[in-house]
Amino acid sequence: MRRVIVIIAMATALPAPWAGSAKAALSQMTRQEILDLAKSGTGYSYWWGHGCWRTDGTQKGSCSGSCPNCTHSGKYGADCSGFAAKVWQVPSSSPVDTDKHPYSTANFRYDNTHWSQVSRDAALPGDAFVYRNSSNTSGHIVIYEKGDPWGSLWTYECRGCSYGCVHNLRTLSSSFVAIKRDAIKDENQDGELRGVVFVDRGQGYSDMSERIPGANVSIPGHAFVVASSPDANWSFTLPSGTYTVTASADNFKDNQRTCQVQAGGTAWCSIGLEPSGCVPDCSGRECGPDPSCGQSCGECQAGYTCNQAGTCECQPNCLGRECGPDPLCGKSCGECKAGYTCNQAGVCDCTPNCLGRECGPDPLCGQSCGECQAGYTCNQAGVCDCIPNCLGRECGPDPLCGQSCGECKTGQTCNRAGVCGCLPDCTDRECGLDPVCQKSCGECQNGYECDAQGKCICRPDCLGRECGLDQRCHESCGQCKQDQSCNNDGKCVDKDECTSACKDRECGPSPACKGTSCGRCPDDKICNNEGHCRDINDNEGKIFGVVLEQAEPGSMGEGVKTVAGATVTTDGVPPVYTDDLGYYQLEASPGEHVLKASTTNGLEGSNTCNVDAGGFSECNITISREEDTSGEKSSSGGCSAVQSSKPPYSFILLFLLGLASTAYRSKSLR
């Protein structure tokens, strides 16, 4: 689920593109040498912040988890930028099994010390495509081998922890730019010159829709080919240089075009030919010969014939059909008699007539008009009649038709089971004696006691505790002094003991004191029992937010404040508690959930939020206490995705809380 959040922009100085250091002399490399180095690294593991592998393809290592907090085993592997630097041998030559990581994707995108940006259309094998996001916190780089730079292309790359270093066919977004290594040695590679031959109707290359298959295409002294059918494609493989291509075809004027071939590249050199002599005229015709040159204007599809006007006419096919339109031309194959309808196969079917009937066979076709439910029978008019059922009953109405099963004697009453006499009534009661017959309605479990309304209520147990909530009813056992916190055993301790327990933990409550937070995870992660951020389960979603207390009307300091130690519950999930800044998180099944928050001093509130599988949703809850005319408590909640016309003070508080948690959300990704 995507969250709608209003963000206050803060001016921050972003670094200008890297100026780079003075260029050092690079050893020359051929493009094939670059691709050979890239190929030798395939199959090795993804290793964040490293760049090395073996040429014998052994000791490939392994990666697990979500980077940058991933776990790597082994001495060899690379991430995307470490892989590119080693393949390009920059800033200097080094063996592939020597671990180096001199650059990030930011360097490759903005620096120009040992490379320069080129047009994506002009990318050649051994060049690279690099991307860096707008916030300059993460990116990716691949080595280009071959294929369409704007479509499907083959690359070498260290793609991620679950992929490793791979050679794969993929597409890249338009955010990727092409860069070329300095000191590329010219290999005098051949290039490809290709194109199509088309009819030039005066629109030039803007209209190449009409092709001329069979046209002759040649480069005098070099090559000759016949344009293929049906698209009139042609191609030559030639040394780099400038060539003049000539095209010719019957009934067309010869034409030629001069184009440049780059080593290892592909150049398009399509040629248009103007008609000469007889010009076929198929205006208004879709089939048969044109009246001028006798050339074909097209063929009719199966089931159609060409008339003298050059138009394809449909031939109706009613084979095996007695009614409705034929499936080819839509012309009628016949009509059905009264009481019958034409089905999709063109056969007349009897149409049942169940007008005014709910059961039994229809009188025309004998097909069923429906079945009666249990306890009902179908009469001759096709209507379900109720059959009274007084089995085991001696009084009151039968439960099916509502007809009387009898009357009780004087002094007796008819209970719900239809039996005369005294029947205990435990409606809405779970314990104690029923008020009618004084028979037991049940017993409460250990730790609970029965109240006057027959409800089992929890009996708090604060034995051995001086603070926090009792473990049975979650009611307060006392408050600690201002400079103390309540630990998990219900004892008041110095706050330093709570925070020191957060060592080696990055999120969740302190193991010593639940009310003290060890930090928070990014929105798309959730804190596990060991205090580390992990991915959200695919079959569940994360709901998180803060519990806020609304100020009483007329009090000083209009607005809201966060509530620490509040209990947050929803169906199917164990209760959780807010930390010292009012924050909570939980995992729940996908769908809509009603979240309720409460405190030991009687404040309550709720909010309804949705969450998708594997997604996350922010759901803040405002609690308050307001007496209405009935004397009952009323409360309300609020979701951060809802915006009001007047910004509430809670927004400012949430923004300040967001600044405090920036450290948990701003880890830069490579």
Task: Describe this entry's structure for a reader.
25% of the residues are buried. The chain is flat. The protein is mainly beta. The strands form 14 sheets. A 6-stranded antiparallel β-sheet has the order 5-10-6-7-8-9. Strands 31, 32, 35, 38 and 39 form a 5-stranded mixed β-sheet that branches. Strands 11, 14, 17 and 18 form a 4-stranded mixed β-sheet that branches. The two termini are 26 Å apart. Helices cover 7% and strands 27% of the residues.
- Which structural class should the secondary elements be placed in? mainly beta
Poorly predicted runs of 5 or more residues: 1-22, 627-670
Strand tally, please? 41
Give the number of helices.
6
Percentage of β-strand residues: 25-35%
Q: From the alpha carbons, calculate the radius of gyration and give it in angstroms.
A: 41 Å
Secondary structure: helix percent: under 10%
| Widest beta sheet: strand line-up | 5-10-6-7-8-9
Give the overall shape.
flat
Query: Termini, distance in Å?
Result: 26 Å
Mean pLDDT: 83
Task: Report the sheet with the most strands, covering strand number, pairing sense and barrel closure.
Answer: 6 strands, antiparallel
